Fold Acyl-CoA N-acyltransferase.
Amino acid sequence: MFETTPLRLRAVKNADYEKLHDLWNDARVQKTLSSTFAVPLDDKFEEKLRTWVSTGLMYCIIETKDNADWVGAEILVDYSFRELGLHRLTLSVFSHNEAAFKLYKKAGFIEEGVLRKTCWSDEKWQDAFAMAILDEDWAALSLS
């Protein structure tokens, strides 16, 4: 576990899966995380979540205090490079998730590519952006 004043970064616990399942079943959340249509997800989805967590290099829960999203993203990036010694972090974000896109840019992620019209949301086709930050990008940001 890693903790600062605004947040706690910790491993996923068994009790988290029900909350994650509920979160994924929220149509507002689902459309920011998946390119498929927003549909209710049954109990089999929890098995899929458990597989993602068990096979991923890093899957963590970020508990923020006082809506400290920006601080959470910054600390997660810092922790990934400083403590875990990673070389590269990657993510994808849908074009209709403007808040997340701005947050990732602010944390130092660079847009690397676009999957054009890959997701139907809000009654139109949406793009998805591939983004990444390298250890040298992070080091340059840390020095400035």
Observations:
- The domain at 2-143 is CATH 3.40.630.30 (Aminopeptidase).
